[in-house]
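Protein in question kept in full:
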Amino acid sequence: MSENRINGFTLVETLIATLLFTVVIATVVAVFSFGANAQSKNEAIVEASQNARFIVEAIARDVRLADSFEIEDGNTITFTKGEDTYEYYLPKDDKENIYYRYSNGDPYKLTSSVTSVTNNTDNPLFSGVGSSDDDTAQSNLTIAISFKTDIGNGKTAETHDETIQTTVSTRSYNKGY
């Protein structure tokens, strides 16, 4: 009896190995895709938060350094420093962006493309006690920026809502504090 058997895999063994390989690769691709989507969502949230924090810190710095400031309608604040005036505002025709303007110059948009401000008349950007020469109260300003960012991946529309708030006081040394 002579054996002419060739060593190798049978068709069934090859099909099972191919099926297992396909399942493993599909699982790896799904995990990678989920991780990539989560990372892009987190990056959008971080960018929007950093943008809002930058705006809050810029306004707080200007409050501390200004000679005086005036809050108008809750969504506009005008600072005076010597002969210069500058303002931060949420325009009536563009309620999703905060702008900065120096001495009646051109406005500069501060919010990034992924950040939309959601403040309104019930939730103003600015509140507090403005400063003037006859004040006896310490001037202070509360800045509350409510914003959202779109974190959808094109298939679903998701948003992240957040509010950043701080209160700062002016550095007026001539009021006897």
